[in-house]
């Protein structure tokens, strides 16, 4: 049996599910890279850079394959909130997000080394949080594993407890904007339109 031509360069189970939902077959290879996490860098630049790092790492080892990388971050007050290091940092992030709006950026990078294809795109969504008092924050953190999620929350995991509303792509917030990804894969002949 021949290998699927597409590789998802991500350890994220959410990205795997979202990509599978498009009906494309793919392998998963996690890129071993150090993400750029400077909280003051322009978030669009940062997610694009990190998505490209992940895709390039895998593409260099699989030059015949199509490789998709992605990176998601939460941006508020001129600062990026990446994955919290521990529960204290997750708590601090939720306090900062409380009662306010923030932007979630996801960068996606598609590569095919042998065909010389490099496609980079960034998508933004807005999320407004409910006012989060300490009791809500504690009960949310007790229910949801947040250390693997940018901003210390997952809109898909009991989001009703903390999110007031959002605009833009929901799947972009969860880690892979499916409409934009579908367009790119279709353009490259990896999906039928
Ligand atoms: C804001 C938000 C982020 N996230 C997740 C998406 C990403 O998996 C994660 C941000 O971390 P990333 O560094 O983008 O991705 P990752 O470490 O999970 O996987 P990899 O680097 O191997 O691709 O936060 C949610 O699941 N829900 C949310 O509401």
Automatic annotation (TrEMBL):
Residues annotated as the enzyme's active site: 71 (proton acceptor)
Residue(s) at site: Important for substrate specificity: 14, 72, 156
UniProt cross-references to Pfam families, sorted A to Z: Maf
Localisation: Cytoplasm
GO cellular component: cytoplasm
Catalysed reactions, semicolon-separated: UTP + H2O = UMP + diphosphate + H(+); dTTP + H2O = dTMP + diphosphate + H(+)
InterPro entries documented for this protein: ITPase-like_fam, Maf-like
GO biological process, one term: nucleotide metabolic process
Keywords from the named record: Cytoplasm, Hydrolase, Nucleotide metabolism
Needed cofactors: a divalent metal cation
GO molecular function: dTTP diphosphatase activity; UTP diphosphatase activity
UniProt KW Hydrolase keyword: yes
Ligase among keywords: no
EC number: 3.6.1.9
The family this protein is said to belong to: Belongs to the Maf family. YhdE subfamily.
Protein task: Nucleoside triphosphate pyrophosphatase that hydrolyzes dTTP and UTP. May have a dual role in cell division arrest and in preventing the incorporation of modified nucleotides into cellular nucleic acids.
Protein name: dTTP/UTP pyrophosphatase
Species classification: Bacteria, Pseudomonadati, Verrucomicrobiota, Opitutia, Opitutales
